[in-house]
Amino acid sequence: MAEVATNDFDPTELQGGLLMQVENVHERLREARARHRVMLGNPFTEVRAGQVGDFGVTVLGYDECQTVLTHPDTFSSSIYEHIMGPVMGRTLLELEGAEHRASRALVSPSFRSALLERWRGELVEVVVHELIDRFAPRGHAELAREFTFAFPVQVIARIMGLPRHDYPRFQRLSIELLNVVYDWECGLTASRSLKAYFTEILAERRRNPQDDLISTLAESEIDGARLTDDEIFAFLLLILPAGVETTYRASGNLLVALLTEPELLDAVRTDRTMVRAAIEEALRWEPPITTVVRVAVRDCELGGISIPAGTNVSVSVAAANRDSARYPDPDRFDPARKNIAHLTFGGGPHLCLGMHLARMEAAVAINALLDRLPGLRLDPSAPAPHVVGSPSARPPRCRSSSRLPVRDSPSGSPAAPTTLHRHRTRRCSATPSRGATGTGCPPRHPGPDATTS
Predict the structure, then answer these.
(1) Average pLDDT for residues 207-224, to the nearest whole number?
(2) Tell me: the pLDDT tens digits for 362-385?
(3) In contact, 440 and 401? CB cutoff 8 Å
(4) Containing domain of residue 418, as a range?
(5) Which pLDDT tens digit goes with each residue over 386-404?
(6) Overall domain count for the chain
(7) Where does the record place the region Disordered (predicted)?
(8) pTM assigned to the model
(9) C-beta separation of 248 from 152 below 8 A
(10) Is residue 275 part of a domain?
């Protein structure tokens, strides 16, 4: 059986490959939210009231963000037709009303709970343990390079039923497609290559159905309606940012939170009932996609701001998830907090279709790492990881750590704490201070939602 390449992934490729100054994103969002629940422009570029139609508005409060997400008759996701349509085609992201309900009904069976449970044992656990097998014997790893990206890519490839020998090519094209916000032409080329690849696979599945996602989509039917080839292609392309990049970033952010608090990591290792709460808290505390976008389709008012029809509305999930009006001590990573609900998976009719798969993948990954690496700790000889995002004229859309160096320390001999540990506050804020460096570059085009909606 062909070896599957997994170590050729450089996390900086999903950040544009450039180093630049990283601002304290959550501090900026907190300062802005203290002044406005809804603001003209965004926390990085404020504008005058008369320019609202040109620069849009940013929604920072939890309740206000939830209002936008749950009122598609006023705040439409149709804006994604212009943002990502040339790359992905017409996806669920941009559909509204009856058309969205019909298309979602056709793809929803692909994520039913019984199927997810099957995938857990037959696909997800197998992939996770195969990857861990490669670095567990040597006792150290760079998880961002060797694990957190590779496992969701391989899971999606297996769910789709792709030939194993195609995994390296699929991973490379996935990286190039996901990097579309930094290199538009590269993303378009990857999209065309993936569509050509899927065309052959889909044609074969229509002739000879298999037990995989592409066959399920090809055979899905409601009241005589079936998905067209273009609709299936669009859904398969959407799965890459929704099912790969967000899982990669979310699992990495969870690992940063746990690894930089060794006592908390040990508590989760001892009591696995904490894993689910830790996953939800990580999704709240550091959402992998910080911002989703809507467009006002009628004149309206929100948070005391008049919003003309046609205005772009940025929903700052990162700000909403740390709204002190909803969460006590919101900057602290605390899996024991009572109110752990968040907006990371969106809301309303576009609530993330794949959220249960994402949660299941994260749980399998964390449990497997804790089982296979009982002395899992940050590598004290390597720079401490930070969750970073790209500062730009608009809020950073993606946040994660570009490195996760770890060691499997012998039982009873944990790795020495890094400087990050010794100087860490109880807030467990993994965002570096002003002047720190990280990866990222201002996107030329807004990225897609964190949802397969």
Answers:
(1) 90
(2) 999 999 999 999 999 999 998 888
(3) no
(4) 11-439
(5) 777 654 444 446 777 778 9
(6) 1
(7) 384-453
(8) 0.85
(9) yes
(10) yes
